[in-house]
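An example makes the point: we let one protein speak, the chain in one-letter code, the fold tokenised, and here it is:
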Amino acid sequence: MNTTTSELIVVGHGSVVSALAFSADGKTLVSGSHDQTAILWDVETGRMRRLWQMPDFVSGVVLSPDGATVVTDVGNVWDVPTGRLLRKSRRYLAPLACSPDGRTLACPTLPPNAEAFSLLIIDLRTGRTRHRFPWSEDAPTSLAFSSDGALLGAVRYEDEDGQDTGNCLHRLTTIDLQTGETRTAIYPIPVYLFGVNLGRGIRLVAASVDGTQFWNAETGEALPAVVAPDSHLRSRDERCVCLSPNGRLLAIGTRGGRVRVWNIASPELLWEAQAHRGWVSEIAMTPDGSALATAGYDGAIRLWDAWSGTPGPTLGGRGAAVEAVAFDPDGQRITAISADHTARLWRIAPPACERRESVRPDVFARKALFQSDTARNLWRIPMGALSPDTDVPEGFQIVALSPDGSLIALGQEDGCLSLWNRKLRRLQPLLPTVPYSWGAPRLSPDNRFLAIGAEDKRFSAMGPDSEGTIHLFDTSTGEIRKDLPHRDRYFMETEAFAFSPDSRLLAVGYYGSEITLWNVQSGRCKRQWRERMDSVGTMAFSPDAAVLAVGTDYDEKVRLKKLKRGGRNVTLIGHTDAIRSVDFSPDGAWIATAAQDATVRLWDPNSGTLLATFLALPGEAWVAYTPQGDYTGSPGVERYLLRRTGADLIPLTPAP
């Protein structure tokens, strides 16, 4: 166990990277993330130079061409050489655009009590507003200066004919910054703006996200397509598009994590590569078009040679999101199930160690690990493929396990469920066949009940006019034992069930952040309250049922609600992405939380103190560390770690 006296920082972002910007010389890159940080990177070495903490998600960043100033859409302006905060402004909102000469910032703003946004033109050095242009009730979806800085283009959604029909048009407005003259064009598809000098007077280009359509944004004239509409290389999952500032290259990122780069002059596909796990969220190119950076939902930033596709350094990046977590019965190890189909077993007591292995049913048997909708979809694997001796009929998929592993809920493609008794080798269909479409089903600890939320209200004992139903099935007969009402049919979009250890209580979380405790035997509502969150994502009872842990997908917090008199509610703050699972140790002394930021965190539930963080890194690498700076990990893990003293970041390993 190594010890440092400075704050320990893991290289890279802990959530979706949502914004990128290069300096004029292409040697510096700034990135913004949903983990509420902005990072300044040295492109040649891949080293972090600065790390700035923000008060909210970062969706837009601007790096001045000289690389001396960073602006974020949360209103912070930073001095790069010193790392010092120069000023704050609540006026700056995404998207942001910087003029080619680096002197002017454009952004939308929404003043207090205002009903519509305005577009601001701001002196980047002083922060003073040069111009203000009225906009609309919706912020622009794309914003860009022309290549000469004389025009500003902005795009917004609007409903066709002003009706809320869902048929969106896209209004592009160009503003002459000298005269204030505006021009408007309407497009039937989403378009993104780029300040590109294509010659022939073309200085601002509108592009479709799939690269099949281009327009002169100033005149509305259609330009030759780069990607042929009937190209076999074109997919249906385009996520983002980027034109190089010199107008020579087009890059497209997809929801499948791939990036494609086209030569505009030919046009021809230059190269294609798998860049990220999950969506490509952002692409940026250097001003000379020689290099590009891609960012993904996996939190990584990857650098590429724009013409050859040769990969450069990878900036940050972590292991796969952790979808479920559970303590072993002895409370000494944590089993974490990740989105990469692996189980990681973390030893809590020293010496800390970690072992990575393929997913096996015997790991599942110790605890019911399917604690999220994402996990339910992830484990749609025929049971026979995992364990031949279970003899589950072909075509069924695991959707829930009892804590002792003896009872399995199986789903079919139509959403209907059956119960498989592993001891008796018996398949028990649920009657009536209720398609479940919301939330992961839950088996009670005593194996007597299966709770599901069902879309079809015809089977509800309360009749078709009820506002939704939770079915409690008797696992011995496969028939509905009780119906529990829920008022919000959308609450099941996230995992929202938890049985108490004695199976007497069922906690149900609603989409609108409301939580209800039901008495399972009587079917009566015992307690109801509302948490300060957007929705309930995951829940777990403490061993004595005195505390309910509630995680959310949106504010990355876990709230510990006291269910008995005395004591205080505690909030666990530390994750940087959606909470996917929570579990108490058997003695209630610890609580483990798992999130999409690829971390498992261990807490003291009484004080809310973070005790340790377990993090999966790229490949087989891993690290476990404490807030005090103690760490252990796989060989060479120091290259993923930094020490932060004030604004300075010091690598634990020397630069190569």
Q: What stands out?
A: Helices lie at 361-364, 373-378, 383-386. The chain has a mean pLDDT of 80. Residues 373-378 form the longest helix (6 residues). The radius of gyration is 27 Å.
